[in-house]
Amino acid sequence: MSKISLDTVPMFKRRFMYPEEIILFFEELKKDNNKNLMNFEVMYEIGARYNEIRHIHVKDIFPQIPMINLTTTKGRGKAKKGEKKVGKARQVKISDELNIKLKKYIKQNKLGQDDYLFKSTNSTLNRTMERYFTKIGHPLPKIFSCHNWRKSHISHRMAIGESLDMIVIDVGNDSDTSKKHYVSPDLLTYEQKMMIIQLLHKKVNFN
User: Fold this and answer.
1) Cα(111)–Cα(122) distance, rounded to whole angstroms?
2) Other beta carbons less than 10 A from residue 207's beta carbon
């Protein structure tokens, strides 16, 4: 049983996830060998939108680099009348740890190059989050959705001192949007920042 608890985590709505919540959530999914664990791990590590994640094919993963090519992204600005707003493809690096997990996942699920990496719908993933946050004893299990992984990714990288300019390139935002909607005040302790470094497989030093 993990020694990590929710005792020191503030409970209010419309926020990023604290690392304790993510660790306990992942641990519970692992216990049940839940098929959506890898989906959540990818969402958290790369901070992509659900719609970007669901369009990843196996052939979009480049394990030699390692990197994921997001071919379906959200366009910026307003689309012209009669046209659909389409974003440019975006490449995001992934950690060696996630790369190894993805290789194993693809092999175990016998996925071909043209197969989608994940098949669960947004609603299925949201229900999974509610169910497993309930299982870990979270008092507000309904406050999170798939978008909170993106919010958490951006806020956590800011908390450990990463450059906002680099973060917005990775997640496909502009700086103003990130400052307004995602970046939260530094509410995290040193211990929580260390948890984030481990969760995101980062190699950083800070005081």
Assistant:
1) 21
2) 4
